[in-house]
Amino acid sequence: MNTPEDRQLLALVEADDAHVPPPDLAALRAGGQRLVRRRRTMIGAGVAAAALAVVIPTTIVATSGDDPKSDPHTPVATDQSSPPTDPTTPPADPATTKPSWPEETTVPLPNGDNAAVVIEDGEILGEVVKIGTWNGYDEVIYAARRQNPGVKQPTTYVADAIRVGDQLMQVSYPMEVGKDEGVWMQGGEDRRSISAPEDPGYRLLGIASGERDVTVSLDGGPSKAPTVSSTDVLPGITVFVVSGPWQDGWDPLQAAPIVVTVDGKDYDARKVSVIS
């Protein structure tokens, strides 16, 4: 173990910081000698030393186990990392699908039934205004903003809800704000089948861009103020509510016969309101 080849191999191992001490010199020498003989046969003795210097650290990693019969110069893959991603590839654009709303839940009603509602989890943007009662719960109108899956920008909407403890629970589909300017209405249908007897038989929800003057007339009657008209629910938007008892003789398949006048222009709820 004191031949020139032994000393050369030992010097190479000691110079390599990556080796695992103590090295198995017998296995190292045998593998190195076989490698030197092969290298000399193929490429000559002048390249053998350089080739040996490159292979020896890998040989040490491969022979650090307890099996003395293992081939000491078998290469071992040590880089398990994934290939890098191409930095020039742009990320995929989010899908522009219709906004999705939270899942429904239920709340108990005085008659023992349950009603489907949606728990509000968006950011409330303005004043929450009480507009009446519904099956023993306070009913309110409010505006909120929510980041919905599949869209780039948050959605702003106006909705009516009931208070259950400290939570708001939507009782109709929200009205999205900001897609188009103008006047939009929702509801106004006969609600007696889902409401307590003391609750309003119909409720019409509307929004108008800007600060607007809103009046209503019912079934050809005189103009009057809506049940609620507010610009505090959502700044820059006039939110209004028209509610009252359902009258015998009205068509239950249509909205109540309400005409909403916004800055002098009439809107027939039966023609423009979306039944929720």
General shape: elongated
Termini gap = 93 Å
Low-pLDDT windows of residues: 33-85, 92-97
Structural class assignment: alpha+beta
The count of β-strands is 15
What is the average per-residue confidence, as pLDDT, rounded to a whole number?
76
Q: H/E element string?
A: HHHEEEEEEEEEEEEEEEH
Radius of gyration, taken over Cα atoms and rounded to an integer in Å: 40 Å
Number of helices: 4
Q: How would a crystallographer describe the biggest sheet?
A: 8 strands, antiparallel
Strand content: 25-35%
Number of discrete domains: 2
What portion of residues is helical?
10-25%
What's the structural blueprint in terms of helices and strands?
Elements: H1 4-15, H2 25-43, H3 45-62, E1 104-108, E2 114-119, E3 123-124, E4 129-134, E5 137-146, E6 155-164, E7 167-170, E8 175-177, E9 183-187, E10 202-209, E11 214-218, E12 228-230, E13 237-244, E14 258-262, E15 265-268, H4 269-272
Structural descriptors:
276 residues, alpha+beta, 2 domains, eight-stranded antiparallel β-sheet, four-stranded antiparallel β-sheet, 4 helices
